[in-house]
Amino acid sequence: MVNDNLVVIFLGSNNEKVMEERIKFGESMIKYPNRFKVIFSGTSKEVDWMKSHSNLKGIAETQSKTTLENLVNSKELIDTAERIWIITDKTHAFRTKYLAGRIFRNTPFEIFAKKMPPSYRIKRIWYEGARLIRNVFQ
Hints:
This protein is of the alpha/beta class. It is 47% helix and 20% strand.
């Protein structure tokens, strides 16, 4: 029986390797999948990819193109939650935590972030910094 009070949100990416790492990482953390409501959030292409590469059954949220949209649109699929886990990667975690704090104000959430290789982190540092500044002023 799925417990809607425990929610896991997998964030999509336009990079399939990143999504693969997020899926494997998130699945390794979920010991009892039938206790969680799982949401795959991203574009249609991202969500289709995540669902086809995951052992978890989940809800498809396919209207999101940004991290902010991922969280806002996923929140609409959650009636109530005691706890929310958001699965992403380390380069994306700080900005995700900032945005989740704005979106899930009264619901405890945790960001679980997969460590990525240094080459990936270096490429993402400027992108994430610019996006964070944009999100702060939105």
